[in-house]
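From the pipeline queue, job 12 of 40. The input is one protein chain; the requested action is below.

Action: predict structure.
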Amino acid sequence: MNEQTAIDIGGDPYKQRINEASALLGLLNFDKERCNERSSLTLLALLGLSPEDPWSAAQQPMLKTYDIMAWLRATYDKDYAPNSRETIRRFTLHQFIEAGMVVQNPDAPTRAVNSPKNCYQIEPGAFALICTYGEPGFDERLQAYLAKLPGLQFIYAKERAMNRIAVTLPSGAEVDLSPGGQNPLIKKIITRFCPLYTPGGQVLYLGDTGSKWSVFERDALEALGVTVDSHGKMPDLVVYMPDRNWLILMEAVTSHGPIDAKRHGELKRLFQGSTAGPVFITCFEEREHLREYLKDIAWETDVWCAENETHLIHFNGERFLGPYPEPTDRPAI
């Protein structure tokens, strides 16, 4: 190795390689946390680089977070706990992506950020540089790479922005949702369901695959007696109809299930203080998908399918598309 990148930490090949990776991350202008052991090991996993391999033997595998952890367990005897996946993703991989060193989902750029198929790969320009780490001329190649990096970061940020889903709310406000997941269906709910069934409705909450609070009208919800618990799982979309004093709670079914009896109970507890009557609607892309969950749909809820947007499927109860009083408020039979 050249003088700038040489590290003297003794004879332990594991520590030697980890510290080399840490020094490399420092040369690439990452902060202290992105140069720690976790980040260094993550880099080595993304390069498929064992302690004995020369840097020129680096590879470019596409790895899920689970694959990274399994590889480190087998190659570096580093056994991260299962709940460390989120730490690796949020505090290492996210920053690697923002810096342009790692590409997320190069095989499917529109894949949802919370998809179990999410994978990561070293960006080609960064890979070409890293393969020469410690060789003559590395410092010059490093400076040339860093000089180009702001442009690369801009390009990748622009590509990510181009893949986002633009949605116009009933109020006329525009929001961008991350690609993939339930968000294409969310757009159909807002642009096709809401004009038909909730005219004049106000979107008080809109979840996003990549950001939990894409729209969150806290004051409006609290005015209706709803205090949102950050630990409570909100529905995908909440629309308030002031003329009827209804609160429409909608779940978009793609990767997660419908409003079944368990979810129905969760939502009723979450919105139990509401002065507006809650209405529960499960939304599907198509009826074929509904068949898979038909037996699970909770009674006293409704179902909407985007492919038949002018129809609703009503699951029993004494009223159609409306809130139900609590059992104690109903007249005795």
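Job complete. The two ends are 86 Å apart (CA to CA).
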